[in-house]
Amino acid sequence: MRIAGASFYRYSLPLRRPLELRGQSIAHRDGLIVALDTDDGGVGYGEIAPLPHFSAETLDDALAAARRCVASLERRHDIGASTPAGLRDREPFLPSVRFGIECALLDLAARARRCAPAHVFCEDPARRVRVNALLAGTPEQMLESACAARADGYSAVKLKVGRTSLEQDIETVRAVRGALGDGTGIRIDANRAWTLEAALEFARGVADCAVAYIEEPLADPQRLVDFAERSPIPFAVDETLQDAGWHRLHAWRQGGLLEPFADVPDDADPVLRTILAARAWVVKPPLVGMPVAYLAHLLTGRRRIDADLVVSSSFESGLGIAALANLAACAGDNALAAGLDTASWFARDVLGAPLPVRGGAIDLDDANAIAAQFSTKTLEELPND
Fold first, then answer.
1. Which residue, among 308, 326, 317, 377, has the nearest Cα to 350 in the 3D structure?
2. Do 45 and 84 meet the contact criterion of CB atoms below 8 Å apart?
3. d(CA 81, CA 1)
4. Higher pLDDT, 352 or 159
5. Taking the CA of residue 221 as centre, how many other CA atoms within 13 Å lie in the half-sphere pointing to its CB?
6. Residue 240 CB: number of other CB atoms within 10 A?
7. Best exposed site among 222, 315, 324, 348 by fewest CB in 10 Å?
């Protein structure tokens, strides 16, 4: 099988409510769909959607890079019909482009094998991918959403904090814990809102609320190791993984520095030390650039790190969410709830309707059946330059 070319389609999806991204508001989510064609008539789809104010690349940057990537793939002879081909790990592809192209290659492999994408990497993936409910808005809205999440059977919720006073954030978390009871996990995302002392005050204020972790609590991420040593609640990395980028993560992996009990030199990169001190990695492949095969191998345990893994979206359309759900399913039935509860923000979707979340989970068979019906007919095809 050879890659014979690709077509690119642009979408602009309206959101049900404005999305605040680092102080900026967007009302539409824009992105690209890549359709990879093979010389035997196959086609595989992937999504390329840089996130405004988070991704370094623009949509135009991503399109130009994706065209160059496809031209490179057309020259390769090592793409098997049923083997999940990927881009070479050492090459510095733009994160959103790597994710979209590799998902299209994974889609090709799954179609050739007549199986779900998760089965390409994993013999026994989860049938249902649990997700954490995303709580955002005013304290009253978050409390209302928490009650709904409990009623809907969610096993975990994620609260956005750091946008009101520290006292209000503590009060909100305590109120949410009271509404959820003891059976639902709480994750906190501060998006680098606080100083070290403020973050420690917050952690002590909610220490008895059974919080799983606080994601990116510090405006100065290089002090996260100090936070870990003094906080009653562990931390998770998200933006710090993006800061590292796949080029550094790959180099550290090659040097064995990401392995459990690795012998890390005293003069190691501070970002590496921060990542190694984290309880959890919140991995958004379109922002980090982590190859999908490597992520799948971490999730299946074929490769190991000393941290929990939470697969998370960066507000992709349903096509991207379906791909991420298949990756998350590689961890099996005991996987941590994934951060894929973003479809509800979309007023419409490239799949026609957002992927349903029922009982706090995405049914993988349903998601793949919906994704299999995807059509480019309603999308704008971009001319080949």
1. 317
2. no
3. 6
4. 159
5. 26
6. 22
7. 222
pLDDT digits (tens, 9 = 90+) for 182-194: 989 999 999 999 9
Cβ-based neighbour number of residue 307 at 10 Å: 19
Residues 6+ positions from 165 with CB-CB distance below 8 Å = none
232 by DSSP, 3-state: which?
A: coil
Cα atoms in the 13 Å half-sphere on the side-chain side of 156: 21
State whether CATH 3.40.50.150 applies to domain 128-372: no
Class of domain 3-116+377-381: alpha beta
For the range 374-380, what are the long-range contacts, defined as Cβ-Cβ under 8 Å and sequence gap of 24 or more?
A: 374/45, 374/319, 374/350, 376/7, 376/9, 376/33, 376/35, 379/9, 379/10, 379/11, 379/33, 379/350, 380/9, 380/10, 380/11
How far apart CA 360 and CA 375 sit, in angstroms, is 27
Task: Measure CA 8 to chain center.
Answer: 22
Q: Which amino acid appears at position 99 of this protein?
A: F
Question: 303 with 89: CB under 8 angstroms?
Answer: no
Measured CA distances, 58 to 70, 241, 322, 345, 378 (Å): 18, 19, 23, 22, 23
Question: Do β-strands 308-311 and 280-283 pair in parallel, antiparallel, or remain unpaired?
Answer: parallel
Q: Looking at per-residue confidence, does 23 or 376 come out higher?
A: 376
pLDDT tens for residues 24-70? 888 999 999 999 999 999 999 999 999 998 999 999 999 999 999 99
Tell me which residue of 319, 325, 380 sits closest to 349, measured CA to CA: 319
Any idea where the domains of the chain sit in the sequence?
Answer: 3-116+377-381, 128-372
Question: Could you report the per-residue pLDDT of 254-286, keeping only the tens digit for each?
Answer: 999 999 889 999 899 999 999 999 999 999 999
Q: Which of 12-21, 150-159, 314-323, 371-380 has the lowest mean pLDDT?
A: 12-21
What does the alpha-carbon distance between residue 120 and residue 333 come to, in Å, rounded to a whole number? 17
